[in-house]
Amino acid sequence: MIPVITLVILCFSLFWGKHLFKHWYNPIAIYAVMWSLEILLYEIRLMHYPFLANRTWLVIGCGFLGFSAGVCAYFWGNRLRGTGESMREAEEEGWIRNRGLLNGIILATALLGIVGAIQHWMVLLREFGSIGGVILNGPTIYRMRVAGEIHGLLPYVTSLLNVSIFFSGIYTGRYGLLSIGMLFAFGGVVIEDLANFGREGMLFAFFEFIAIVLVFKARFTSPRERNKVRRRQLYSLVTVFVVLILFASIIRSLRSGKEVIKGASRKLNKTETGTVITPSMYLYFSSQIVVLNQYLQKENEFNRWGENTFLPVYNVLSKFGVVRRPSTYQEGYFIPVWSNTGTFLREIHSDFGILGVVFLPFLLSLFLSFFWNRYRNTGRTYYLVFLTYLLVVVHFTFLMMITRSAKWWISSAIILLILFALNRKKSRISGGSVRE
Fold first, then answer.
1. Per-residue pLDDT tens for 262-303?
2. Quick one: average pLDDT of 198-219?
3. How many CB atoms are closer than 10 A to CB 187?
4. Over the stretch 211-223, which tens digit does the pLDDT of each residue have?
5. Residue 254 pLDDT > 90
């Protein structure tokens, strides 16, 4: 019954989102697809997961209703004010047409970000002696990272890789091509995740990239040019997706090698040597709602207000002794393997209670709808920054609250500063021409 209900809601959400946002890629569609995928994978039951309690389904339903209500509130509010259908051609900012400047920003931020990723490797090489030693100790390094036992890293420098990816997305959205600097940016993300023996960085980079490419509103001189660029965009997205899947599989094999997961069905364990479809990949995309279920059943986590949602803020305050330092990673549960990610609803519930489960998704979709319309109407890149980073949050809702990551905050702040500098430069040039 659950799979049927899920598919009905998914189909309704796809067409409803297309009707409201005039685009197949939209906040409602993303939320519905990510959650439907997880629920359907769970329902296949290739692992011996415990059954979800009614309370868990209630929390999941409240999250979806809150998110949907935020979209409705925005569009109904616009309709009442008589502004719901005001769509006009967006004006393209001048610096976007300067391919040399755009490539320079992409390359400079990528190279600076790679410095942080390489320094991470230097720390590991000092600890384990060689690249071979690092690879052989992959599972140990992963556990050390989770426990916060790796020290001496340059903090936050790798956030510049996401800055480079943002401008790379604009470049691909405008010209349909992959820039040289973007290859360095994604290369840096892969280097960092290889050092972490994780996959979150690559997932963040991919979600950020596709959000910008698919939302970016370029002005074309002819339908022929538009179709040409769109074909190039498709090729670029497929290329990035295939490369990241390849490296994610490599990291998985280095971290755990041959996979035999306790609690997996015989059918799933037959894929233990697979490249893409493996027990860990199935676990990665199906276990979060089970962790959410265990969290709700035990009710043994007590956080300060907003501690998960605003984790980087608490980390900064702890450096000044204002609050005690929060845990970087959350408590795990056996489901029947150990896992500690329980969707963004777990973190919202832990931070704000059941009212937060409705109200925060409501605010998220409300602001998303606002920035979507503002960007589509004005073409201002400031709005694109907020829109992109909120879309990344939606992509991660099935997994975690991505605002726990400092790179989400730092990279978005750096992008805004760069845009401020670009617009000031434009204003000075315009002002000089006027005076002349």
1. 666 666 666 555 555 667 778 888 899 999 999 999 877 777
2. 86
3. 17
4. 999 998 766 555 6
5. no
Residue 250, token pair as written in the block: 């490599």
At residue 62, does pLDDT exceed 70? yes
- Alpha carbon 71 to its chain centroid, in Å, reads 20
Question: Do the beta carbons of residue 360 and residue 354 sit within 8 Å?
Answer: no
Count of CB atoms situated within 10 Å of the CB of 386: 18
The CA-atom distances, in angstroms, between 408 and each of 129, 160, 353 are: 32, 11, 24
Prior bond of 336 cis (ω within 30°): yes
Contact assessment for residue 96 and residue 90, using Cβ atoms and an 8 Å cutoff? no
Q: Which stretches of 328-396 are assigned E, i.e. beta strand?
A: 333-334, 338-339
Residue 420 tokens, joined? 């401020």
Distance CA 55, CA 350 (A): 15
Give yes or no for residue 46 having a pLDDT over 60: yes
CA distances from 405 to 67, 151, 245 (A): 22, 18, 22
- Token digits of residue 408: 């989400």
Assess contact for 158 and 113: CB atoms under 8 A: yes
